[in-house]
Write a structure and sequence with these properties.
globular, Arc Repressor Mutant, subunit A, about 375 residues, 15 helices, single chain, alpha/beta, binds iron/sulfur cluster, three-stranded antiparallel β-sheet, pyruvate-formate lyase- activating enzyme, 2 domains
Amino acid sequence: MAGLYIHIPFCKSKCSYCDFYSGVQGSLTDKLVDALQHEIRLRADYLKGDELQTIYFGGGTPSILTHRQLSNIFTTIATIWDIGKCTEITLEANPDDLSAEKLKELSELPINRLSIGIQSFHDEELSMLRRKHSAQQAVEAVREAQPYFQNISIDLMYGLPGQTISGWEHTILQALALNIQHISAYHLTYETGTLLDRKRKEGRIVPVTEEISVAMYYLLQNRLKDQDIKQYEISNFAIPGFHSRHNSSYWEGIKYLGIGPSAHSFDGESRQWNIANTLQYITSIEQKKNYFEKELLSTTDKYNEKIMISLRTIQGISVERIEAEFGTQTKQKLIQQSERFIKAGIMFLDNNHLHLTPEGLFLSDGIITDLMQE
Ligand code: SF4
C-alpha cells in the first residue's frame, strides 16, 4: 500500500500568506508535464511493487492544468500502477478555476475527490489574503462540483488579522451549509518572506491575540462536532468514512512517492526531496542530472517523526508500538515525560495510547517539541 503525490508548482498569483513552492510561470506548464511523466517512469521502482492506494495532485494550483495535461499524466501513471485499485484520487483546486466546463472535464478523469482552497467566506478577508475568488464564487464552485464529486473537502483559515469570532463563525456555518464531506482548517502562520509577514513586521496589520486564536479553535471543534463532522487530526475534520486517506497515510508512516519540483518521498528508511526550482527541475530531468537530495533516517529521526505525526492525530501514540519499535526504556521515558502534560489536563493515557485533549491539540507544537529526542 502506497501513495503518489504530484506537485504542480504554478499559481495565477501569489497569496499573501503562502510560502509553498509555487510560481507564476504558466508558459512552462507543458514542459513541466513532460518532466513529471519522465520522472514517474524513472522512479517506477521506488515503491518496490507496492499497490498504489491514493494519488494526490497538490501545489501550487493543479486545477490550472488542462484536461489534456492531466490526462497525459494519468496515462503515464497507468503504465506502472493499476489506477483502478486507488481508493482516493484528489485534485487541489481553486474556486476561480472551477467553471461548469472544467468540472465536467475533471469528472471525466479518474479523479474522485476535490480539495477546494476557499479559506474564507468574507470578501474582505479573501482580498487581504490575495485570493483570486470571491465568497460567492466559492459557494457556486462547491455547488456546481457536487453533482460530479461525492467527496469534497474545503480549506479554511482562521486567526486572520482583523477577523472576529462572529466572522469566523459565519465562515464555519457557511461551510456547513454546503454539506461537504471534509474540512481542513488552519490557523494563519506568518511565514518568513510572505507579504503578510512583512506587513506584520511593519505594524501594518495586527495578529489576533492568543485568547482569540484559542476561542476560534474551540468554536471550530464544537460547531463541527454538533454536525457529526469528526475531528481526526489537529486541522482535519470529516464525516465518517471521508477522512483523507492520502494524508492519513503520511501520518501512518506509509510509503509515498513525490513527483515534481520540491516534492518529498519516503520509502520507510529514507526521505528524499526534489529540487525546489521548476526550471532547474525540468532541465535536470531532461539532461539526466541529479535533481534530488536524500537522507537516511536514524532511529532518533524515526522516533521523533512517530511522536510528531501520531500526536497530531486523534488516535494518538500507541505506547505498545513505541515499545515494539524503540524498546522498553524509550517507552518508559515517553510515559514519564508525558506525566506533566497529563497532570496539566492537556494529555491523557487511554487504552495504551497517549492522546491530546482538545486544549492539548491547540498546544500540540510545544508538547511535541518537548517529547522529541535530541
Ligand atoms: S493558490 Fe495556494 S499554492 Fe498558490 S499562492 Fe495561493 S495558497 Fe499558495
